[in-house]
């Protein structure tokens, strides 16, 4: 399979067009794919399959073929962040189902103890850490919980950073959460976007990049209840628009919304293609959005 042909796209004029249909690059057969990140240093795309306890790597260095590697994990991985260190292997900051830890995927081993702080998943069971992102300054990693579908369980969003002695420490910054998603920042890092998915709403907070503190919670966007949609993961483009993966749980075709954070309006939509597998048409739901800033536009 020729990867370069799959990555070739026709530029879209976002001012004159309000939707496009995505093209399938790889049928990775994930049960719950999450945390997709493009690593520009290694020119690869990384993501996790939470339920299957697997980590995926799609290598883009050779555009003549698809190099897709899958690593088994010891437990569920909700999200992860890149590290500012040079390495021949793949060390990352992991938000496991029950805590934060530095872990080398390719060497298949932890690089230290789990972070110090309150229990991030006190109820265990189906609850776990979920969506997460590294802040633009690279000093902190944020990840929030998912209650496993039990409305009686309330989770939190945690901020994890490395202390002067190298120890990872975490603290809660948002409480009473059912399913944390859409953690990302405005282009100037002054705003943190966040969604508690069951509420169907995306909010912004004023973000203090020095202390990591939040203030001034403000409603940005509400999903249309008639579409049976909730906000999942998000990222922000160079013009400050929020790209949000829309979770519809099979109620309709999956899609990604480009949202104007000033008006809260959807200004562009990417429709996800359904996948035919073994004679059955499968409806795909996107969970997170990321961009590739390389030779691929």
Walk me through what this model shows.
Belongs to the SMP-30/CGR1 family. One of its GO terms (molecular function) is calcium ion binding. Pfam families: SGL (PF08450). The chain is an all-beta fold. The protein has a domain at about 5 and about 30-180: TolB, C-terminal domain (Neuraminidase, 6 Propeller). The chain is built from one helix and 23 strands. It has one helix at about 5, and strands at about 20, 35-40, 45-50, 55-60, 65-70, 75-80, 90-95, 100-105, 110, 130-135, 140-145, 155-160, 170-175, 180-185, 190-195, 200-205, 215-220, 230-235, 240-245, 255-260, 265-270, 275, 280. The strands form six sheets. It has a five-stranded mixed sheet with strand order 1-21-20-19-18, with no helix packed on it. A four-stranded antiparallel sheet has the order 2-3-4-5, with no helix packed on it. Strand 10 (about 130-135) and strand 11 (about 140-145) form a beta hairpin. The longest helix is centred in the N-terminal third of the chain and has 5 residues, at about 5. It is globular. The relative contact order is 0.13. Residues about 295 have low confidence and may be disordered.
């Amino acid at each position: 399979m020729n990867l370069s042909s799959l990555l070739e796209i026709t530029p879209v004029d976002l001012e004159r067009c309000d939707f496009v249909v995505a093209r399938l690059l790889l049928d990775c057969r994930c049960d719950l794919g999450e945390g997709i990140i493009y690593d520009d240093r290694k020119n690869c795309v990384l993501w996790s399959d939470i339920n299957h306890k697997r980590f995926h790597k799609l290598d883009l260095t050779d555009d003549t073929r698809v190099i897709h590697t899958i690593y088994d994990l010891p437990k569920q991985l909700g999200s992860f962040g890149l590290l500012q260190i040079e390495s021949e292997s793949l060390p990352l900051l992991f938000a496991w189902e029950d805590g934060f830890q530095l872990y080398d995927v390719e060497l298949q081993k932890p690089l230290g103890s789990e972070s110090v702080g309150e229990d991030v998943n006190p109820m265990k069971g189906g609850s776990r850490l979920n969506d997460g992102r590294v802040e633009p300054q690279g000093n902190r990693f944020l990840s929030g919980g998912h209650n496993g579908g039990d409305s009686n369980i309330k989770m939190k969003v945690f901020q994890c950073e490395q202390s002067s002695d190298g120890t990872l420490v975490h603290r809660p910054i948002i409480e009473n959460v059912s399913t944390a998603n859409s953690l990302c920042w405005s282009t100037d890092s002054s705003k943190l976007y966040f969604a508690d998915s069951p509420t169907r709403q995306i909010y912004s907070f004023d973000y203090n990049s020095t202390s990591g503190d939040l203030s001034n919670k403000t409603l940005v966007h509400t999903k249309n209840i008639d579409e049976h949609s909730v906000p999942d993961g998000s990222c922000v483009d160079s013009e400050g628009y929020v790209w949000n993966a829309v979770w519809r749980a099979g109620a309709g075709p999956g899609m990604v919304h480009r949202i104007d954070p000033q008006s809260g309006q959807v200004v562009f939509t990417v429709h996800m293609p359904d996948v035919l597998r073994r004679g059955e048409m499968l409806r795909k739901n996107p969970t997170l959005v990321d961009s590739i800033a390389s030779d691929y536009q």
